[in-house]
Known about the structure:
The complex is a heterodimer. Chain A has helices at about 1-35, 40-60, 60-70, 80-95, 105-120, 125-160, 165-205, 220-235, 235-245, 250-270, 280-295, 300-330, 335-360, 365-370. Chain A is mainly alpha-helical. Chain A has one domain. Chain B has a domain at about 25-80. Chain B is mostly helical. The chains are: A mainly alpha, B mainly alpha.
Amino acid sequence: MSSDVVLVIVVASALAFDFTNGFHDTANAIATSISTRALSPRAAVLLSAALNFAGAFISLKVAATVATGIVDADAITTTIVFGGLIGAIAWNLATWWFGLPSSSSHALIGGMIGSALVAKGPDVINGAGVVEKVIIPALLAPTLAFAAAGLTILITYRVVGRQRPGVVNRGYRHGQLVTASLFSLAHGTNDAQKTMGIITLALIAHGNLPANSFDVPTWVVASSASAIALGTYIGGWRIIRTMGSRIIKMDPAQGFAAQGSGAAVVLTASHLGFPLSTTHVISGGIMGAGAAKRVSAVRWGVAGNIVTAWILTLPCAAVIGGLAYGLTAVFGDQAIGVILVTLMVLGLLIAAFGSRVRRGPAITGAGARA
Amino acid sequence: MLAKIEWNKIGELVWVAPLAAFAVAVCFSLVIFGLSRAGEARRGGASGSAAAFTGLTAVAGAAFAAIVVLGVIVIAKK
Lengths: 370, 78
């Protein structure tokens, strides 16, 4: 009975993480489209939410990778999964609060590593998996996107540089509808699967699914797709503002270059089964599209803050995940520990959002339109 | 630890991703270029040039559409 309660809370936490993932990463797919006025904010979030939902159903390859490549699946318990999710949710909300685009993938992986480390020690962490599936893609993704977007914008300006600006801007705005759609689809394919992987891992740990296979149940796919789509539709406007207008002031060609390159990098990585961060990719793409036009066009202070958040994501989420697990473990195997940590997190969230509501909206959909 | 890493996949990522970005940029930019020049040619009464640039637009547009479809297939076939 007690373990059933824990499983229910873990599944709910995983879906809550999925919601924050969509909410946090809305900017990745649509910030450039909103910034260049290719789409209205509402139309952009609606389009992105629908395609995130669809994307979640397309492939399950990354789900298997997230669950089996980083932490030893046999050592995982539902309480470890819970600690990891708390670490990821807390870091996602903290970075959203400061309007910083950070990787939800790394927050989740960091949370899981911290929680598993405290619970079982370093032996359950797959070091090669962390290097291959986290550190190398984390270095490659923004670098590749930066270079690809830089190359793309130079080609773009070379081909259309002497044409009438009205035709060119209209054309690239239309192009952004396609690239934003592709990016949203890729995001749904990559990111909803992380939650599917985590829920499936919890079900295996609880004994609901056999440990020797990794079949994701249909209800897990449907609920994960719905949670990420809902989060995307609500929209993380603080991060949209950072990505859309605080890194560079972009024209439609730059928006197209950043999104098109980002989609190319994410789709290639998705094809290879890497848990790649769409945040790293699109941020690198935006910086590349700006820097190739003029190095000083990029606000490097903002870019530096973003990169700092990236570096801190895995260790900070790991520390929070480890603390959450440690606090839960004080109460042994009983559900009371998980329930208490959940109540504490909910209390902190209510306090934080209550404080924000009293101070008035910081950045909203209406604010983004202005 | 490093021996376990699938370097061939990483190598593939390094060259395929920029190539795909390059192809997307060239094709779509040619669509806009062709549209713009075809419009100018039509306004200038050069129907032959207008037809040629319209053809360029159609070819580049078809290539761009093919790349997008390929991207969706890449996701769907996994």
